[in-house]
Amino acid sequence: MASVEIKKDIYWVGAIDWDIRDFHGYEIPHGTTYNSYLVVDDKTVLFDTVKKGFMDELVDNIKNVINPEKIDYLVIDHVELDHSGCLPDIVALVKPEKVFCSPMGEKAIRGHFHNLDLPLEIVKTGDEISIGKRTIKFLESRMLHWPDSMCSYLQEDKVLISNDIFGQHWAMNERFDDEVSFDNLMFESAKYYANIILPYSPVAIKFLDFVTELNIKPEILATDHGVIWRTHIDKILAAYRKWALQKAKRKAVIVYGTMWGSTDMMAKSIERGLVEERIEVKSLNLSSTHRSEVITEILDAKAVIFGSPTLNNGILPSVADSLTYIKGLRPKDKIGAAFGSYGWGGEAVKILNQWMLDMNFDIVDDGVRIKYIPNQDDLKACVQLGKLVAGKVKELVPEN
Length: 400
Ligand code: FEO
Known about the structure:
This protein is α/β, with parallel strands linked by helices and 400 residues long. It has helices spanning 55-63, 81-84, 87-94, 103-112, 182-197, 201-213, 233-244, 262-276, 291-298, 317-329, 348-358, 376-396; strands spanning 4-7, 10-12, 15-17, 22-23, 26-27, 32-34, 37-39, 45-47, 73-75, 98-101, 120-122, 128-130, 135-140, 150-154, 159-163, 220-223, 249-256, 280-285, 301-307, 335-342, 362-363, 368-371.
C-alpha cells in the first residue's frame, strides 16, 4: 500500500499487517494496521512508527512523499511496541532534531530502549508547537491505552491523531471510514473497544469531555489502527460515549463450557427461558467461541450467565480462561447467574458465583446445579432460571 494524502501535506505512511491473529489475548481474525502519519511543513514531522518487522513498508511509504532524512521531528504518541518497534531504526535513519513525547512517555521510552540516545522534548496537555503553517497541540490521554499515551491535534487542519483511541484491528487497503461497510466498521470498533479500552472507560469519558471543553471539533480522526474517520465522526464519538458509560440493553449472554453435553443442555433451556420472555440472547459455547468474542457480546448486555461442569473440584479450563480475561476488562453494572452439571462434588457453580462477586456482578440467584444428565424437571428449573434473569433485566433496563 502506498502513502495516502489524508489532507493537504498530511499523509498516512503506515503498514498493514495481514497476518497477525493475536493481540495480547484479543483474537483479530482480520489482521490490523499500524498507522503512522507524516506532516510536511517548514518542519516535517513523523507521528509514531510501526511494529518491528514493518520498517521497510514504513520507509517506502515515507519515500513516496519525501526523503526520510528530511524529517525534522518525531512525535511518540505511545510507546507500546506496535507503534514504537521501529523507533531505534527510524532514529538512526532520520537523525531527528527533536523527539516529542509525554512525561510518562519519557519513562516508557527509557524502559524500552535502554541505550537509545534521543533529543527528547517533554510535552504536556495543552502544550503547542509551531511547525510552520501548522500548530500541533498535545493532549495526554493517559491509560488510553497506556500511561504514556497522548494525542496530537493539528489545529489548522482539524486533524486529531488519536493513537489507539477510535481504532479497529482490521487490515485493509481502504483508508477511510466511508470506503468500508459501516456496519462492519462499527462492529470492529465495538470489538476493539471491548477488548482494549473497556477497563479504562471512566478515563474515556473524561477524555471525550475534555475534547469538548477545549472546543476541539476534529474533521478527521486519524487513529493508529484501522481506518481514518472523516465521515462518521459524530457516530464514533457517540458510540464511544455509549460504550464508556456501559449502557446495557435488554440482552443476556450465556457463556459456558461443557464436558459430556449436560451443561450444554442446561444452557439451551436457560436460553429458552430468556427467549420466551423476549430478551435478546447470545449463547456462547466456549468450545467454539473465543474470549474476545465473549467480551464483545458482554459490552452491551445487562446479564451474563456463566456455566461450567465441575472438573477436578474446579471449573473447565476454557471457562477459567474467559473469566480471567473478562475480569481484567472490568465490565460494569452487570447482573449474573451460574449453572453447571456435576458427578460428585459439584463446586463449579459456587466458584462461578465467587468470580462474579469478584467482578462486582449482582448475582440474582444461587444458581442451578444438576447431577449427571438433566431430566425434564431439571431442564424446567433451567428454563425458570432464564425467566428469572429475564425478569431482572426488564426491571433494570427500560424498554427502547
Ligand atoms: Fe496500539 Fe496500545 O497500542
